[in-house]
Amino acid sequence: xxxxxxxxxxxxxxDALKDMLGQRCSTSEAVLHxxxxxxxxxPPELPDCVCxxxxxGEVSRIMTLCHEHKxxxxxxxxxxxxxxxxxxxxxxxxxxxxxxxxxxEVNAEDMDCRVQAGVTxxxxxxxxxxxxxxxPIDPGADAxxxxxxxxxxxxxxxxxxxxxxxxxxxxxxxxAAGEVVRTGGRARKSSAGYDLxxxxxxxxxxxxxxxxxxxxxxxxxxxxxAARATFPDLDSAIQTVIGTIQMGIPVARIELVDSxxxxxxxxxxxxxxPVRDTLFLEFHGxxxxxxxxxxxxSEIAAEFGGSDLERARREEDRNHLWQARHDAYWxxxxxxxxxxxxxxxxxxxxxxxxxxxxxxREKLESSFLESHIIGHAGDGNFHMIFCIDPDDKTQxxxxxxxxxxxxxxxxxxxxxxxxxxxxxTGKLKYLRLEHGDEAxxxxxxxxxxxxxxxxxxxxxxxxx
Amino acid sequence: xxxxxxxxxxxxxxDALKDMLGQRCSTSEAVLHxxxxxxxxxPPELPDCVCxxxxxGEVSRIMTLCHEHKxxxxxxxxxxxxxxxxxxxxxxxxxxxxxxxxxxEVNAEDMDCRVQAGVTxxxxxxxxxxxxxxxPIDPGADAxxxxxxxxxxxxxxxxxxxxxxxxxxxxxxxxAAGEVVRTGGRARKSSAGYDLxxxxxxxxxxxxxxxxxxxxxxxxxxxxxAARATFPDLDSAIQTVIGTIQMGIPVARIELVDSxxxxxxxxxxxxxxPVRDTLFLEFHGxxxxxxxxxxxxSEIAAEFGGSDLERARREEDRNHLWQARHDAYWxxxxxxxxxxxxxxxxxxxxxxxxxxxxxxREKLESSFLESHIIGHAGDGNFHMIFCIDPDDKTQxxxxxxxxxxxxxxxxxxxxxxxxxxxxxTGKLKYLRLEHGDEAxxxxxxxxxxxxxxxxxxxxxxxxx
Lengths: 464, 464
Known about the structure:
The structure is a homodimer of 464-residue chains. Chain A is α+β, with helices and mostly antiparallel strands and 464 residues long. Chain A has helices at residues 7-21, 29-35, 56-69, 121-127, 145-150, 158-161, 164-167, 196-200, 234-246, 259-269, 287-303, 315-326, 328-335, 353-364, 393-412, 431-450, and strands spanning 25-26, 49-51, 73-76, 93-96, 103-107, 112-116, 133-134, 168-174, 180-184, 209-216, 218-219, 223-231, 253-257, 277-285, 307-312, 340-343, 346-347, 372-376, 381-388. In chain A, a hairpin with a 4-residue loop joins strand 5 (103-107) and strand 6. Chain A is globular and about 65 Å long. The interface between A and B is large, with 97 and 97 residues.
């Protein structure tokens, strides 16, 4: 079913969209190129045009038109996807949702809000900064809430606050036929029928175009403490993470950064952190309780040889520490000028984290590639970053080979091929290995039922 | 599509099941009666036979047979359903899963486990009591994990630990064709494809028969504090709840019990609690932190006229306090000998909780029914209990009328017709009002795709 629409269909759709949207439908080469790629490297695939709707009604009209002509639609936020979700392998219409950037409602008393899909996570937090609430999910990039919902994103706070799956309470989407469907409500919990909200979260634009999202917000804790501790090796750091989680310390963040990363961060962010395997942490609670949690953590870390514990209490010190962590990806890229980043993203039961890292490092000993490890260790999720020349097939082949080894090992351990980046095109080939034929057949049946013409972000997530 | 199978089909299936299972397939009247009802009152509807499989393979063989003959299948745990999920309106085969009661694995280091569907929540907690871990979800009854998963159950701990949606990490189910499908994995998070796990959670046996479930476990907190405080009226209690949640106090339980319930509890549980509107609470953390949380709560409660704060630190005192809360339903039933309980279950944004309770109480002023309110107030979820004579149509009509008023108001407020009990047959008629035609059409499309013959628990949740 994965065939390009005819050029007649494309022309008909593009002409009609230009009539409908005027300059908000573009076919400029530069715009097509900006929308035929994501943040991590994949061979670009350009759409035939890019639309910039203003509201759900316009998305519905675009979708109805594309449905009539069987032309693919690819939702697009700010292009920070890492697994090729925004590519247009069959051409079609890229729907850029960045003009839909309004915060529609904030209900401080109920700690929820509703935003258009194009609002970014930072814009949302800026908007609500006077309410005493915050939205915790923080993938590295300042992604849109729509994109984060579609990819079931998470980030450093997931160990305490969950992922998008746990924080989306409802959403509006436009289905393949152009109809507007609303899921969920404002109740904190519900047993009323199939969980369409959770089905759309992580569906990557293949079941509908998400146009607005209702989110849980969380109370800003009375006190926060950031901390950093270094370890003789990754094993000791990981054992400390396991001990911390098992003690029931409700750590808000617990991030693993390997020594090569620290080296790059020191260069990039002008820090002078000891070049050792490191944990970055954050504790939320009352003044007393964050001190108590940090003390408890410190005892566990000491048992495993941890040292150099640095505490950051003041907001500026905490921000400084976390800015360094958030800059990590750019810090590594800066070490390899002219190269592009390729990011792996497996997640395993936390007891297997040390084992899989050993396994991959051993495999890498005979490789010409250098790797760098960063991880949301509290969730058993880590990324290995490779900086490569995408035009050099030896390099791309090698990165795919290592990535495959890692994914297969993670799945063998009961883990997943993607902890937070999504399937897109990059992980498509591993879905059957992870879930089995029966579960993939069920996903296909759902896709078939919701999008029989296969026009919603085709060739991503689940193929039919 | 909701037609009874022919008597020939039924005979063929029952004969084959008796061959397959021997005495583990029963057609005794007493057994059929025990399986044609749930815990809350609905007119009973009997299955044609009841099977007791020992493993997933047997469930698969039963399902394959029923599929071949187009005979309905109704999964059954311990029958504590409150919305008619276990009724057999078209007859068919009730699959009683209570023999499948093995804990399959406990991974203490990763804080997860896998259990067969027939394990009850209390049996699981007994099994893992030496691991330092616990499973927090606690509907009133000692329900099976399979039933709790199928109905997306929750209970008193949901405000802190979430519902079944948040605690099921994967599951195995048998689909309409008898195939065994496995969803999810052991990773703490994943973005790998459609969230089939969450689609099955809350699907009430209409998409498949759940045979085993992988669950998150949680570390037993170092310290727990239970507490009880009384208030001049429900409003003050609810304002205290809102203040507590908004302050970010990570309360583990915060339960509202009205004065009429307290009166019944005093009689039933031999307590001497002040007969006032009351909050029951629990705090989890370190020794210092639970005291600190209780102090903070106490200050908020005092602002709203709360008094009589009683703290329970020792395990036996805590258990005593919570036993009284858990006995509440039986305490009310004991006040009305010979009557049956009818339980409502709406959930609203917490800011609307006082308003909806006022609204319903006002409507009840002109009613001959007495009502009693108990609620998981931290989630905006409450139950009104009515004790009625199910053979008196005036009483059943009146309870349906009041329930409808309550549900309609909750939905108007952005809430849901069921916070935790499920749709079953009881809430079927409200699904469209709550979700809209487009969302219900999507649920129907999924049901149609997964169960085209409509043999999986037909006439429940979503009808096709």
